[in-house]
Amino acid sequence: MKISKNNAILCPCGHNKSYADCCQPYHAWQKNAKDVETLMRSRYTAYALKKVDYLVATWHPQTLPTKLADYLDDAKWIDLRIHGSWQKENANEAFVEFTARYRNSSGKAEKMHEISRFIKQSDHWFYVDGEVS
C-alpha cells in the first residue's frame, strides 16, 4: 500500500486520500455509495484489500457468482483509472468504464478494461455485470 506524506495509508481507489477518509467508511457500512463511480471505486478497493463481504453485499443477487473466491485470485492491484460514468434515461441503471492495472500471481503486469453495469434498488447501487475488453 502507498503511504501519504503524513504516514496515512492511501486509498487504493486513486483519489489520493487516506483509506480512512475515502473507501473505509463504505466498507464499514458507515456510508452508502451515492453514485456508481463511488461504488466502483469502493469495490476496486475491496478487491485490492480482499474484502469479500463488501463485494458480496454490493453485487446484485441475480448475478452474484456462487464462488466469489474464484474471482479473488492472488492479483496485486496497482491502480484504477475511471474513464467515465453515465446513466440511461432509466435513472436506476448506470455504467462505469474503467481500466485497472494489476500484477498476476506470476508477477506479470496486466490490465483489465471493463464497462460495468449497475442497478439501483431501494437507494442502493449494485454491480450487475460488465463487458470486459
From TrEMBL:
InterPro entries from the UniProt entry: NTF2-like_dom_sf, YchJ-like, YchJ-like_M
Source taxonomy: Bacteria, Pseudomonadati, Pseudomonadota, Gammaproteobacteria, Orbales
Stated family: Belongs to the UPF0225 family.
HAMAP family, alphabetized: UPF0225
Record domain YchJ-like middle NTF2-like: where: 36-130
One Pfam family of this chain: YchJ_M-like
Identification of the protein by name: UPF0225 protein O970_05875
